[in-house]
Every structure is written in C-alpha cells, then in structure tokens.
Specification:
The protein starts with 6 loop residues before the first helix and ends in an 18-residue tail after the last strand. A hairpin with a 2-residue loop joins strand 4 and strand 5. It has 8 helices and 10 strands. By secondary structure, it is α+β, with helices and mostly antiparallel strands. The longest helix is centred in the middle third of the chain and has 17 residues.
C-alpha cells in the first residue's frame, strides 16, 4: 500500500473544495460512510484500490486531478487547485529536538497507531484493597493532530492524554483534572495489525495525603472496535464505563492475577505487597536546600 502523508488533511480540503459531504462521497464510492469517517480521522488509510477510486471521483470535480497529486505536500496541493490551505486542528510547531520528536511520533502513529485504536479495559492492583484487581475503561483513537488520543475513566475519575508508539513500545501520558493526577505508563507493543492485549508498568502519585509516587503492573484488553463516527464512539465510551463489559478475548482471572501480582519478594500475593514500588516520606531520599544551606 502506498501511504499518503497527511491524508486526512488533504481529503478534508478536497471534500470542501468539491462540496462533497461524507455521505455523498460514500454513496458515490459505494462504501459505508463510517469508512469515510475513518479516513478523515486517520484511523484507516484507503487501500490502493480505494485511493485510485477517490482520485477518479475528485478528478470529476477538479479537472486534472490525478493519483500522484495525493503525494504532493498539502501546501502544493492547495496552491495547484486554488484551495484554501488548512492546518490540522490543534497543530502546534515546536523547535529543536521536541519538534523532531513530535514529527517522529506523528509518523509512527500513522504507521502503527491503528493497531491500538478501540475500546479497552485495564486491570491493575487496587491501592486500597490489597489482592484485588481494579478495572478502568477507555478509548484510544488517532486525533486530528495525528497523535493517538487516550481517554480512561473509572470510579468518578476521568483521565485524558496521548499514546506515543516508539521502537516497538508505547508510552502513555494521562492527566486527571479532578484528582490532579498525572499518570505515565510504559507498555510493550505488538507487531500484528490489531492489538488484543498489551501490558506494562504504570507510574502515578497516589491520592493519599503525601501523594506518594507508586509504580505497579497494568494489563490492557480490547473491549471493542471504533465505528469511525466520533460522536457514536464517544457515546459508546460513556456506556462502557457504566456497563463494564468483558473483553473480547478475556484472560482468566488466575492469569490476570499471576501477571499483576508477580512473586518478586517475600510478601504474599494475597497481601498485594509485591505488586507495588513506592517512595514514601519515611523511605524517600528526596532532599532540597536553600541558598543559605538549609536542608529539608
């Protein structure tokens, strides 16, 4: 398959220039309108066959348009056909290494992000009930900016952030506006085109009075797939938080607990003591100083 860079942006510009709606485009191509929505969101890239059909259809409205035009940069494409150039919503340019990093992330997300799009259930140890598993439910999808957006909810908390695929692994950065809790997760990625399960290590600040840093294992299982309709997917996300469905291919509880409560020390799995790494006030080596030598 020939991958077109920034296809959602280019397709959106061309649809506006030709006054083609999603429904009209879908009807003329004889595809479901949800597929057009997934092209526009970046969740799915058109096959070579569909890209050729898109080119032919747009050529009926913009004489001279051809398949090769998709591979021009968006500015050149807009200038050639007199289209008002658009930027991806929320697009921000950063200088130096951060800009290089985000550019790399966007490219990696375009190539591998679709494997992780969908609805998910997490399994992790409970901070308050030792030995018990706790579940959150979430949504992962590629947003207009090209980055993989993440929403996770449970127990009245709502986390939002981004998933960053890199070097076969995944980094997830989330923030909760209610508990003011930043969360970082490192996952082992998958190589096949549709992830069903992936696991890793989660780091957060506990909601105790000291906001103790804690790290523990986390495992994520697929609950469902996106429809391509953003509004419908948002509604489905709200529903699964309430209904708490089982994963599509659920792992047995004993397998989950064996993975989450690993035998890494003398503490028993029933007590949940070996599932956590923490930095408490009594054990922390964190220190500070003032300009006059006061330590604390």
């Amino acid at each position: 398959m020939n991958h077109v860079a920034d296809l959602p942006l280019k397709l959106g510009m061309l649809m506006k220039a030709t006054s083609l709606s999603r429904v009209a485009l879908a009807q003329q191509l004889a595809v479901d309108k949800s597929l057009v929505g997934r092209w526009l969101s970046g969740a799915v890239h058109p096959t070579d066959h569909n890209l050729a059909r898109l080119s032919s259809l747009i050529g009926d409205y913009l004489p001279g348009f051809r398949l090769a035009d998709w591979f021009e940069d968006s500015a050149t494409l807009a200038q050639r056909y007199g289209i008002a150039q658009e930027s991806a919503p929320g697009e921000v340019t950063f200088p130096g290494v951060i800009g290089e990093f985000l550019s790399s992330v966007s490219e990696e997300s375009a190539m591998r992000g679709s494997a992780y799009e969908g609805f998910w259930r997490t399994s992790r140890p409970s901070l308050l009930m030792p030995g018990e598993l706790f579940h959150d439910y979430g949504l992962i999808r590629r947003g207009p900016s090209g980055l993989m957006e993440v929403r996770m909810g449970g127990s009245g908390l709502e986390f939002e952030g981004y998933l960053i695929p890199f070097a076969g692994n995944l980094a997830v950065y989330l923030f909760d506006r209610i508990g003011r809790s930043p969360v970082t997760v490192m996952f082992k990625g998958v190589t096949l085109p549709r992830a069903m399960v992936f696991d890793g290590i989660l780091l957060l600040a506990a909601l105790d009075s000291a906001r103790t840093p804690v790290a523990f294992p986390i495992l994520v299982e697929r609950v469902g797939d996106l429809s391509g309709d953003a509004e419908a997917d948002d509604q489905r996300y709200a529903e699964i938080i309430e209904t708490m469905p089982q994963p599509l291919e659920p792992l047995p509880d004993d397998v989950l607990k064996a993975r989450i409560y690993r035998d890494s020390g003398p503490s028993s799995a029933a007590q949940g003591g070996d599932a956590f790494l923490s930095v408490s006030i009594s054990s922390a080596l964190s220190r500070g100083t003032t300009g006059r030598g006061l330590h604390g």
